[in-house]
Amino acid sequence: MDGITSIDKVVAMYEVTFSHAIVPNMQAKVKVLSRSIGDFMARINVARIDRQLGFSAGECGLGDTEQEALDDLLTRFVQDARMHMPPNGYLSSDFEWISADEF
Question: Tens digits of per-residue pLDDT, 54-76?
């Protein structure tokens, strides 16, 4: 199609509730796309704000299947949250939400 670089298809939407030990009172949405290049990408509607750098540290997951992309994303998100957890745990203000209109 002239003027179009790629068309990706949303193949799944998930609602994920995280453990209070990792992120307090947090439920997020995950969108999985089947990409025109033949793989899958998962995106989450929340990002951790890096306190030292002052910007969001977003994650995405990739895989050869929908499930692999979802698993990759959630593994990365939880590992990142654990690695950067403040001594007293997270506050709601430590996360930035993507607008529902954009997700």
Answer: 777 678 999 999 999 999 999 99
